[in-house]
Specification:
Number of helices of chain B: 2
Largest sheet of chain B: none
Radius of gyration of chain B: 21 Å
Distance between the termini of chain B: 64 Å
Oligomer: heterodimer
Low-confidence stretches of chain A: none
Shape of chain A: globular
């Protein structure tokens, strides 16, 4: 068996995951804070103003990374939902449940900052436009995932199975959000950056803080999901011997 | 400095967005810390009960 496959099986076991993730957490939070502080300072004070939108475009440095994260995190929720539903992996359940509040947070940021950007540019805070509406549906999906788990929290395994089902069904919304500006006429602009199409932002001084913020938010998500999933495993496995072993050597 | 804060007349929108971003991350970090304290207390009290 190759090393990668062995590592994957190792990660699937709650005690191993708990130990490995505990070691990784500091390596996530330090770059997250450093990158976000650098990205915000660079974007707010050093990036040149846009010729058309002037300084209002600086909202992009939080809006775009948050919008990317809202979709990225839901993809993780859905994928771990599949693993949890099909193979009943406890670690996948933990990642699915733990990702939902973080993703919901990024979706709230994307919606609120989008409204604050929309008012000076479009003259309105909100429009029932395809992109905005599908992003709002994404927030409801996150709330649905969290609510479903809470509703059956006295039986965590059953709760996780039902939550996984909701998470998997919600995956259909991701391509809708992504292609909403192409499929329907929208006041929202198209993608500024895409993996296949490159970037429409040609000025490196504008692009740099955006990419740094995107990386910073990724690291923050990894920090938060690792910390939350460890707590989830502790809570759901608290009667197990490994939890007792781990906690006798761990201070609060 | 005041020019930077003024953001060419878009101060409310730009700084409001930054505040929203930071607020959500701070709330996330605080909720994580609260959850950790709660779960650790719960487990420690369970372990104490088992010892008794």
């Amino acid at each position: 068996m190759n090393k990668l496959l062995k590592f994957y099986y190792h990660l699937g076991s709650p005690p191993s995951y708990y130990r490995i993730s505990g070691k990784l957490i500091p390596w996530m939070i330090i770059p997250a804070v450093a990158l976000m502080v650098y990205g915000l300072i660079d974007g707010l004070f050093f990036a040149p103003p846009d010729y058309l939108q002037k300084d209002s475009y600086r909202i992009m440095f939080v809006h775009v990374p948050a919008a990317w994260m809202s979709m990225f995190v839901y993809a993780i929720v859905g994928f771990s939902g599949i693993l949890a539903f099909v193979w009943r992996m406890k670690v996948a359940e933990a990642i699915m449940i733990s990702s939902a509040p973080i993703g919901a947070g990024f979706t709230v940021i994307a919606l609120v900052t989008g409204m604050l950007w929309g008012k000076p540019m479009w003259g309105t805070y909100w429009d029932w436009d395809a992109r905005m509406t599908s992003e709002l549906i994404l927030l409801f999906l996150y709330i649905g995932v969290m609510a479903m788990y809470s509703a059956y929290s006295d039986d965590p395994r059953k709760a996780a199975r039902l939550t996984a089902l909701v998470a998997i069904i919600g995956l259909v919304n991701l391509p809708i959000i992504h292609y909403s500006v192409t499929w329907w006429s929208s006041i929202h602009q198209g993608s500024s950056i895409s993996i296949t199409g490159g970037s429409s932002i040609k000025d490196w001084d504008m692009l740099r803080p955006l990419l740094v913020m995107a990386l910073g938010t990724k690291f923050y998500y990894l920090y938060s999901v690792l910390a939350r999933s460890r707590l989830h495993l502790l809570e759901t496995e608290m009667s197990k011997q490994w939890v007792k072993k781990e906690l006798t050597g761990e201070s609060q | 400095m005041s020019e930077i804060l003024h953001m060419d007349g878009y101060a409310f929108y730009v700084w409001g967005s930054m505040a929203c971003f930071l607020l959500v991350l701070i709330v996330d970090a605080i909720s994580l810390k609260t959850k950790k304290t709660h779960i650790f207390r719960k487990i420690h009290s369970m372990l104490k009960r088992k010892k008794l």
